[in-house]
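Holo model, calcium ion. Inputs:
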Amino acid sequence: MRILITEDENDLADSLAQGLRQQGYAADIAYDGEEALVLVEVNTYDLVILDLNLPKIDGMEVCRRIRDSGAPTSILMLTARTSLSDRINGLDQGADDYLVKPFHFSELLARVRALLRREVKAGHPILRIGDLVLDSNALKGFFRGTEIPFTVKEFAVLEYLMRNAGRIVSQEELLEHVWDEQVNLFTHTIKVHIKNIRKKLDAVGGCGLLSTVKGRGYSL
Ligand code: CA
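Output:
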């Protein structure tokens, strides 16, 4: 899942990005409203975390323009404690949820997870395909009850494939949703991750679960 953090306080933006990456999300940062709109136009985000108080174009206007553009992203607004009217306004402008500053990272994470589940219309945090089970809250994968030691990135790839099970997911789509702008754009990265996931699945008896459709992508 790919997230855009729009926040002009550099330290906060950077630590949010770092925290989200540790959870396996792809995270880009926009430090002002103008940059946010450009990035939303170029990339496909599953979620935009949007501070209200931004240089150049303020958060409320950014929210309105993202909604006008029809980009199918969820929006989580960050607001100051005092401003009830901002919160109401934000929801009216199309934000899906808001979080009051200052907040604890674990609460942000819980809201991010909830919004992303809503977005993919797969309301449950536990994903299951046959004997393969992913717990997207705990970031743990199991096959017939045996835990599989996935890295967070492998987990993110597998989670995306599971949420889209039954259809072919292309390399481009995986890159778009699971990697951020820090990625080395050689799709080699994806191949390596898929190979490692497959190796780990094979090791616990889950052979053949993850198939490669030549020239088109991957499918679970
Ligand atoms: Ca701000």
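The longest strand covers residues 74-80. The mean pLDDT is 89.
Archived with the compound record.
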